[in-house]
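As a warm-up, study this chain.
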Amino acid sequence: MRAPAIYTGGRPRSVERFIDRARGTARQPSEPKARFYGSDGRELKRPGIQGFACLTEKAFEHQGRLVYFEAAAFVDTLHDGRSKSVLFDHDASRQYGGSSAGLVFANTVRGLAFRMPIASTTDGRAVFDNVKDGQRACVSVGVAIEDFKTQNIGGYDVDVIARATLKEISLCRQGAVPETFATIVDLEDEEPDLWLAARAPRFAAMKPASNVDARVKRITEALARLKA
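Now compare it with the structure written out below.
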């Protein structure tokens, strides 16, 4: 009688396939890698999005109130170790990236800059198409206000926010803060340090043209004079 065979290489493939089918997890073909092209037709080596998620020291109107983020409003939250998400239209069910996908921020003299690589996935394609086509090329922040005071400026009550906890940023059709934006970039061509990149005139020049309400502009200027 022959001795029983001893199998040392794991389960036979036929057994693995049977188990996969039984569990409903049969292996599917891998998703083809997405390829992304810039406006000049050149394939992007390391596609990404970047821009300003919020501008500080600029008044804006939100839900019937005038709001103004101080320059240091986001400093603490950028170092709290909590994950931040990228959503569409502040909809938590439509998450398309976040800290675990390489989302980073920098607090600059202009405001809160952000950058995120675009993954070669269906979600990455959605982000790329919506930003490139201008469908969601504006950005809005989802925050919890930690410290603020209301000041009367030129006859208007303005909520001046000293500290806020950042929860998420959203790609949207129209942001509350004028001149926030997201744009497609090839990260291969960008300054690796986002803080340095966001200080360059080229970074801000990427934004689309936008109109700033005259009243909001006057309030911003008045607040600047008070701080002088």
